[in-house]
Design brief:
Elements (H helix, E strand, L loop, with lengths): L15 H12 L8 E4 L6 E5 L4 H20 L2 H17 L1 H12 L3 H21 L5 E5 L5 E9 L2 E5 L7 H13 L3 E4 L6 H13 L6 E3 L5 H9 L4 E7 L2 H13 L3 E5 L4 E5 L5 H13 L9 E7 L3 H14 L18 H16 L3 E4 L14 E4 L6 H4 L6 E7 L2 H8 L4 E2 L1 E5 L3 H10 L4 E4 L14 E2 L2 E2 L4 H6 L2 E9 L5
Parallel strand pairs: 5-6, 5-8, 6-7, 8-9, 10-11, 10-16, 11-14, 13-14, 16-17
Antiparallel strand pairs: 1-2, 3-4, 4-20, 9-19, 12-13, 15-18
Helix pairs in contact: 1-4, 2-8, 3-5, 3-6, 3-7, 4-5, 4-7, 5-6, 10-11
Length: 495
């Protein structure tokens, strides 16, 4: 492969050295020669196999993790913290190799993959620090005669189910707080991108995590896995990131054993640009909120509302920027937008575009896929999008910016909140009162104000309504893996 653009499509090709380094990381995993096939979405090439575990094998893995969890829970918080610090150091040491592995199996540009390495490792560092702050309280009972002591304890075996779009960060965001709290882990990565999880856990063991404590289970039968594992009485916690329909099914399964549940589910994020916004900041923020990870992000801007006073200029400039974006293999030099995860995603983007155009939208940029191998779709801008169009009501998960104009604050807030989802929203305005008041009225768990990437390891990530329950990141993320115990201590009165 070369670094030159492919002549037939204009797509940037992968760089041979980057591919070789990613494949060297894969080789260390010593995966099977058959099982679940993992492909490079930029080329369609088969790059590895991972085990296709049966439900019985998954339950056996849960048993091993649970058995290892007893001694881990008994370790001091300082010991657990040190192991996490060791893991963080190894992840940083292997950061460039991990970034290339992410790009190889998921398709995102190498620059973005490096950003994910930083984001993902931040969770490990954060929870290494949080491990020595497990929480608790001591206070006298209000009516006297006793003291109230509360302590936090590990909740027990945690089943973690991660998506394909951020294969390192979604794993570390769940594993790190579980280990910090003292819990054993069974993690099931997505079949499209399991390699990064296997590699990261391999480093965790090297860092001092007991070998059986974190079990990685890959399977092609997610439904059978969930039914078997969530029925196991050893399991006390389930954390899932993915679609709302799957989340509902998992909650039903979790209810049978009354499992603590964290669900980070679907999104339909509104992005509001007011006339008084800093124009350049709003453009840059919209590009980040829309095209980060190729638009394959649960907090990606889905519905872009621009106030009528600047809408024409905004749409034209956004289209001009989109048209200049370099599309190609994630491991190609200069790639700004990588491949989508599979051919179904490309077909869905084309369907969204065609539907919007049939309903009267104007195509300002993109609107097409590319011939040949790989799953690419051009960065697309649609203006004057009908609210009945599919892109207005469904999570896009791709590089389509759908613009609708608005006049008043009340009007756009009605539109923004007219959805069953409530994960993230965005506000662009230089008026601080307006920005904060609009943020308060958005029915979302996360709001980016004058910026397009609000995620942070130190912040509680999660949504409202059908976008889930529970939080990941911050101190709240640790609490998701802890149970609260209350001791009532009788005191002899002196009167």
């Amino acid at each position: 492969m070369s670094t030159t653009a492919r002549q037939d499509t204009g797509l940037i090709a992968a760089t041979a050295q980057h591919v070789a380094e990613a494949d060297a990381a894969i080789a260390t995993l010593h995966g099977p020669t058959q099982g679940i096939a993992v492909h490079d979405p930029a080329s369609g090439q088969l790059i590895a196999h991972v085990p296709d575990s049966t439900p019985e094998q998954a339950v056996a893995a849960a048993r091993r993790a649970d058995a290892a969890g007893t001694s881990w829970a008994e370790q001091s918080p300082r010991h657990r913290a040190q192991v996490l610090h060791n893991w963080y150091a190894l992840l940083i040491e292997h950061g460039e190799r991990i970034a290339k592995l992410i790009s190889r199996e998921m398709g995102k540009p190498l620059a973005e993959a490096r950003g994910e390495v930083k984001y993902g490792t931040d969770f490990v560092r954060w929870y290494a620090e949080e491990a020595v702050r497990p929480g608790g309280n001591f206070q006298p009972a209000p009516d006297g005669g006793a003291d109230i002591l509360t302590r936090r304890a590990p909740i027990g075996l945690a089943v973690l189910i991660t998506p394909w779009n951020f294969p390192l960060a979604m794993a570390t965001r769940k594993i790190a707080p579980a280990l910090a709290a003292g819990c054993p882990v069974l993690i099931k990565p997505a079949t499209a991108t399991p390699l990064t999880t296997y590699y990261a856990v391999q480093l965790a063991i090297e860092a001092g995590v007991p070998e059986d404590l974190v079990q990685v289970v890959s399977t092609s039968d997610s439904a059978a896995f969930s039914t078997a594992v969530l029925s196991d009485p050893r399991v006390r916690k389930v954390s899932f990131t993915g679609s709302t329909p799957v989340g509902r099914t998992l909650l039903e399964l979790a209810s049978k054993n009354v499992l603590r549940s964290s669900m980070e589910l679907g999104g339909n994020a509104p992005l509001l640009v007011f006339d008084d916004a800093d124009f350049e900041r709003a453009i840059e923020g919209t590009i980040a909120a829309k095209l980060r990870n190729g638009g394959q992000s649960c907090i990606g801007a889905n519905r872009i509302y621009v106030q009528s006073g600047i809408a024409d200029e905004f749409a034209a400039e956004l289209a001009r920027r989109f048209a200049r974006i370099q599309v190609g293999a994630g491991l190609g030099e200069g790639t700004e937008l990588g491949a989508l995860i599979d051919s179904r995603a490309v077909a869905q983007m084309q369907g969204f575009t065609d539907d919007a155009l049939e309903r009267g939208a104007q195509l300002l940029a993109g609107g097409h896929g590319y011939p040949g191998a790989g799953h690419f779709y051009a960065p697309t801008v649609l203006d004057h999008v009908d609210p009945a169009a599919q892109v207005s009501g469904q999570e896009i998960f791709g590089p389509i910016a759908a613009i609708r104009r608005f006049n008043t604050e009340d009007e756009v807030l009605d539109w923004a909140n007219d959805t069953e989802f409530g994960l993230a929203g965005y506000v662009f305005s230089q008026d601080l009162d307006r920005a904060l008041n609009v943020a308060d009225r958005l029915q979302t768990g996360i709001v980016g104000i004058n910026q397009g990437v609000p995620s942070n390891a130190a912040a509680p990530f999660g949504g409202v309504k059908q976008s889930g329950l529970g939080r990941e990141g911050a101190s709240e993320g640790l609490e998701e893996y802890q149970s609260i115990r209350f001791y009532n201590i009788s005191r002899r009165t002196t009167h």
